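Hi all, long-time lurker, first post. I run a small reading group and we've been trying to get comfortable going from sequence to structure in the token notation. Rather than ask abstract questions, I figured I'd post a concrete chain and ask someone more experienced to write out its structure so we can walk through it together at our next meeting. Sequence below, copied exactly:
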Amino acid sequence: MVAPVPRESWADLLVEGVIAGYDPGGNDNHGLALLTIRDGKATALVTETLRTAEDVIAQLARVDRLIGIGVDTLTCWSTGPSGWRPADRWLRDHYPEVESSVVSPNSLFGSMGLNGMAVLVVTQRSRPSLLITETHPKVLCRHLLGEKYDYVNKRTVMDEELTRGLGIPVDTANDHEWDAAVSTLVLLKRLSGCWSHDLHTEPTEGAERIVTPCGPTHYFWPV
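-- Answer (accepted) --
Happy to help. Here is the structure in token form:
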């Protein structure tokens, strides 16, 4: 298991910079959020929907001080049965009402796994100190709102929850942008000293091993 980022360095990261959130999708469905931090507080959030993963890579390359990125993708892989990882098992055990949202990694479609990892690998190569956290917007929605994810019918409530969490106005255009925005919240909360549980530190089972193709990553979660 990868070593965690030393706590004393997190406060330094949060002073000023940009936290990115990325929701991988198919063509024209890549959600990207950029959260600007000044003096340790969120000051602005920009969300957009891009066409391809390459467009996301290009946008991130233009960010001068990128602190970290939260991505709804598999930031590490397991060699165990069905590809289940300790983090996946933990989420299914603790959120049984939405356990169907936590899918066996071996059964996932390509856009989430492939595009998400592609963006991480390329971005991490040019910024090796980048702080990376995995996210799961659908289960996070359940935790934050106490309700199942339903952007079409609950957009206003979901945006209001992010407004409270980030401390700045949030107005997303679609579910991809909301997923990207909530992914910035994950990292902001951890850098602020909250959301201390890292699901990537959950113990493995049997002979499975964890493979980290883009280097050290985390899976910060509220507890």
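A couple of things your group might point at:
The radius of gyration is 16 Å.
DSSP finds seven helices and nine strands in the chain.
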